[in-house]
Amino acid sequence: METLFTKIINKEIPADIIFEDDLSLVFKDINPQAPTHLLIIPKKPIPKLSDASEEDKELLGHLMWVAGEVARDLGLDETFRLVTNNGAKAGQSVFHLHLHLLSGRPLQWPPG
Ligand code: AMP
Predict the structure, then answer these.
(1) Which of 27, 28, 50, 74 has the largest CB neighbor count within 10 A?
(2) What's the gap between Cα 39 and its chain centre?
(3) Considering the entire predicted model, what is its pTM?
(4) Which residues cross the membrane (predicted)?
(5) Count of structural domains, the chain
(6) Which residue among 2, 3, 4 has the greatest number of ligand 1 atoms within 8 angstroms of its CB, and so is best to mutate?
(7) Confidence check: pLDDT of 108 > 90
(8) Residue 111 belongs to some domain of the structure
(9) Within 13 Å and on the Cβ side, how many CA atoms surround 73?
């Protein structure tokens, strides 16, 4: 099923894209929860992390690598949080796998 993020990947709706390669896209969250709030998504439409299959292992690793690269490029490498909400009860609202990268303010633990 096509989500909002597929439309962003296909450039059918605008987004503030800060990184793109053949497998992934990184753009600013429209409703930021921290001074820096990025979404790291695969171009492959996997609904959520628990839907990923064994063949996605490399892709999942790639997303983590991209997160680290982008954080380094933005000078965030010392302090950021990477999180994925898996399922509606965990707060997931867009069913296209994404990692939230949050930085720029103190981050509490445990999260809400
Ligand atoms: P989640 O609640 O974990 O599924 O996260 C979905 C995120 O997508 C939320 O933080 C939203 O603010 C964000 N979002 C929704 N629509 C857009 C959009 N058009 N551009 C950028 N971020 C969006």
Answers:
(1) 27
(2) 3
(3) 0.97
(4) none
(5) 1
(6) 4
(7) yes
(8) no
(9) 9
Indicate if the pLDDT at residue 77 is higher than 80: no
Residue 90, domain member (yes or no): yes
Q: For residue 57, what are its two tokens?
A: 């292992």
Which pair of tokens denotes residue 63? 């997303």
CB 101 within 8 A of CB 73: no
Residue 108 included in any domain: no
Q: How far is CA 107 from the centre of its chain?
A: 17
CATH of the domain at 48: 3.30.428.10
- Which of 12, 31, 36, 51 most suits a substitution to test ligand 1, by most atoms within 8 Å of the C-beta? 31
Q: Exactly one of 37, 62, 96, 98 is catalytic; which is it? A: 98
- Which of the four pLDDT bands, split at 50, 70 and 90, describes residue 10? very high
pLDDT tens, 31-66?
Answer: 999 999 999 999 999 999 999 999 999 999 999 999
Residue 42, both tokens? 């695969």
**Domain that includes residue 12, residue range:** 4-103
Closest CA to 69 of 109, 24, 7, 29: 24
- Asked whether residue 70 is domain-assigned, the answer is yes
